[in-house]
Each structure stands twice: as structure tokens, then as C-alpha cells.
Design a protein that fits this description.
single chain; alpha/beta; Rossmann fold; five-stranded mixed β-sheet; four-stranded parallel β-sheet; 11 helices; 9 strands; about 40% helix; globular; binds coproporphyrin III; binds fe (ii) ion
Length: about 350
């Protein structure tokens, strides 16, 4: 099958102080996130002048893909902020695109990391009459180029730390119920946390570390609802109590150094470690690393040439969908939101 374009589908982020609140409202609409939490997160964004780095990082990563000779036009659209995915799809249609591949900027399965991007595709196709067909590329958490980019970043960050530092992987926390519902029911759930654990294991093995931890960051939602734990900041404190002489944080759950990375890790976790006198380093995410650009090109080539997936884990290959239809029945079903009484 042939395609006339690639849609780069991401999360989106505000571009100035006045964008922050409407952006946060887009992200959390109908999700029961308490206003106190929104005020807190708004302050994180305003700390950086109301500008998230995420849009610029996506544009730079797209440039890196073009720079290695990728020959399809690349369009850029987001779930939560401009350029919105609906607009990107309308532009694609106007440019004569009939069928496009979609690269979602998340490596993992689960509702927020995978299925919600299918919902974005569905929403955009509903908004655009006679929309182009959209085929989403598969999950890539165990692709050798993804693992390799992180392994090099860990090696680079380690040069600033004492030799017995602890390697700690982080990913975005999600509600425990969402993780239980991640993947098709036949797989027994937990696809998100299992894939995060597997990618962490692969990176740790690549750098020759047999001791490492997997923890979570950026918890949202009402406090009474359980989310994946421990949190990275609490974990910094536990490691300090254990007498660990340094910490290297690798944000394996993300593909770019966006705001949740620069705030929750480079500010909050870093500051806590510094207060405790613990050396702290953070590995870079793939961003515009040429290997990440190559990964995108390979995923497209693999799909268009029907090649076997290049992957390092025995986990099933998943996440490839057409026009926003889930990749398997009941896969990563959206959680039932708490109803107000
Ligand atoms: C699994 C996952 C990823 C990784 C997969 C992927 O990358 O797609 C991710 C990425 C991101 N999350 C981001 C930002 C936010 N996430 C929020 C809220 C939430 N995230 C969730 C999960 C995830 N999120 C969940 C379950 C919620 C609760 C609300 C809901 O059920 O949906 C909120 C609301 C405020 C708050 O934090 O409470 C914000 C502002 C940014 C952009 C940062 C920037 O601007 O640079 C990025 C890349
Ligand atoms: Fe998030």
C-alpha cells in the first residue's frame, strides 16, 4: 500500500502565558483533575514564561527526519494545542493527501500513551469531511534504535557521577486502574507498566547495570485515586536513606525533554537531591537524535514493505491502527471516570 504523507501526532503545549489555562482545560476536560492540581501545574508552565518546549522539540525532530532524506511530506498536529490535529488533517486534505501514516510521539501502549491517540485520529476524521485515511504506526518501546539512543544518553550522564550511582528510570504515572486495563484483556493487563519495565531492562543491560529501579513521575488526578508509585521525588529520599551516593534519572517514558521532564525531573527531583547532598544527573531523551529520526524512517519502511518488526523484546507488536479503530477488541479501554454525586 502506498502513502502520500506522514502525520506527526503529539501532545501539544502552550506557546505563551495566555495559552496555559485553555491548554490545561483541553488536557483535563472531563477527567476529574482537581482545580488545585491545575493551579499547581499552571505555575510550572508560567515559571517558563507560559511556553512549553514540546512544540519546538517536535518541529526539530521533524527536521531531523527530513534531514536524513525522508521523502514523504510531514504534517504536524497535536491532541491538546495548536497546531491541532483537526487543522493538520484539513491541511492534508487540501494538499491532496488521500492516505497517510501517523507517527505518535509515544513509544508505549496504554490508554494515554496509545489508545487516546486513536481517539485523536477519530476526532480529527470526524471533523474533516472526506478525510484522508490515517494508519497509525506501531509501538516502538523495544526498538533497538530507541534503546540505543537512551543507552548512550545514560553513558553520557554517568560521567558526572560517582561510580556507585543508582540508575533510575521514570515514566509518566497513570491511574492503577488505567494500567490494569492496558492491552487486550487476553494479555492480562498492565501493558503500559510492563513495556516501561521491559524498555528499562533493555537500556540497563545495554549499559551493563544490573541494579536499577523503575519509578513514576508527574502524577495527576484526585489524591484518593491510586496511581502508579513510587514517585521519583519520594524515591530520591529513599535512595538517600539507603546511602546511595548519586542518582542518574533516565526518562524512558518520553521521547523529548518537554515540560514534565524539565520541571518534574530537572527542577523538583534535582532540587531534592541537591538538598540531600546527592549528586544528580539526568539522561537526555531522544529529541532530534539522528537514531530517533532513523527509527521513524524504519517504522515507515517496515510498514510499507511489510517487513518483520525490528524489536528486542518478546512482547507482542501492537498499536498499529486504521482510522482510529483500536488495534484489538477492548484494547486499552478508557477508564470509567469517577462520576459526581
Ligand atoms: C502516559 C502519559 C504520557 C506519556 C505518553 C505521551 O507522551 O503521550 C503523558 C505525556 C504528557 N503529558 C503532558 C502534560 C500533561 N499531562 C497531564 C495529565 C495526565 N497525563 C497522563 C498520562 C500521560 N501523559 C494522565 C493519565 C493524565 C491525567 C489526565 C488524563 O486522564 O488525561 C496534564 C494535566 C495537568 C496535570 O498534570 O494534572 C498535563 C499538562 C505532556 C506535555 C508536556 C509539555 O507541555 O511539554 C506530555 C508529553
Ligand atoms: Fe500527561
Amino acid at each position: 500500500m502506498s502513502y502520500d504523507a506522514l502525520l506527526w501526532l503529539s501532545f501539544g503545549g502552550p506557546e505563551g502565558p495566555a495559552d496555559v489555562r485553555p491548554f490545561l482545560e483541553n488536557v483535563t476536560r472531563g477527567r476529574g483533575v482537581p482545580p488545585e492540581r491545575l493551579d499547581e501545574v499552571e505555575a510550572h508552565y508560567q515559571h517558563f514564561g507560559g511556553v512549553s518546549p514540546i512544540n519546538a522539540l517536535n518541529l526539530a525532530a521533524i527536521e531531523a527526519v527530513r534531514a536524513i532524506g525522508f521523502d514523504l511530506p510531514i504534517h504536524f498536529g497535536n491532541r491538546n494545542w495548536h497546531p491541532m490535529v483537526e487543522q493538520a488533517l484539513a491541511d492534508m486534505k487540501a494538499a491532496g493527501v488521500r492516505r497517510a501514516l501517523v507517527f505518535p510521539t509515544s513509544a508505549y501502549g496504554g490508554y494515554s500513551a496509545c489508545r487516546q491517540y486513536d481517539e485523536d485520529i477519530l476526532r480529527a476524521r470526524t471533523a474533516v469531511p472526506d478525510a484522508p485515511e490515517l494508519v497509525k504506526l506501531r509501538q516502538f518501546f523495544d526498538h533497538p534504535l530507541f534503546i540505543d539512543a537512551f543507552a548512550d544518553a545514560v553513558r553520557a550522564a554517568a560521567t558526572t557521577l560517582p561510580p556507585d550511582y543508582r540508575l533510575v528510570f521514570t515514566a509518566h504515572s497513570v491511574p492503577v486502574s488505567a494500567d490494569q486495563a492496558a492491552g487486550p484483556p487476553s494479555e492480562g493487563g498492565h501493558r503500559y507498566s510492563r513495556q516501561v519495565a521491559e524498555a528499562s531492562r533493555l537500556v540497563a543491560a545495554a549499559v551493563g547495570q544490573d541494579q536499577y529501579d523503575v519509578v513514576w513521575q508527574s502524577r495527576s488526578g484526585p489524591p484518593r485515586i491510586p496511581w502508579l508509585e513510587p514517585d521519583i521525588v519520594d524515591h530520591v529520599e529513599s535512595l538517600h536513606k539507603e546511602g546511595v551516593p548519586g542518582i542518574l534519572v533516565c526518562p524512558i517514558g518520553f521521547v523529548s525533554d518537554h515540560l514534565e521532564v524539565v520541571w518534574d525531573l530537572d527542577t523538583e527531583a534535582h532540587d531534592r537531591a541537591t538538598e540531600l547532598g546527592m549528586p544528580f544527573a539526568r539522561a537526555a531523551t531522544p529529541n532530534s537524535d539522528p537514531r530517533f529520526a532513523q527509527l521513524v524512517v524504519e517504522l515507515v519502511h517496515e510498514h510499507t514493505h511489510n517487513l518483520p518488526p525490528r524489536k528486542l523484546s518478546p512482547f507482542p507488536t501492537a498499536g498499529c491502527t486504521t482510522n482510529g479503530t483500536p488495534c484489538a477488541p477492548l484494547c486499552c479501554e478508557p477508564a470509567k471516570r469517577p462520576t459526581k454525586h
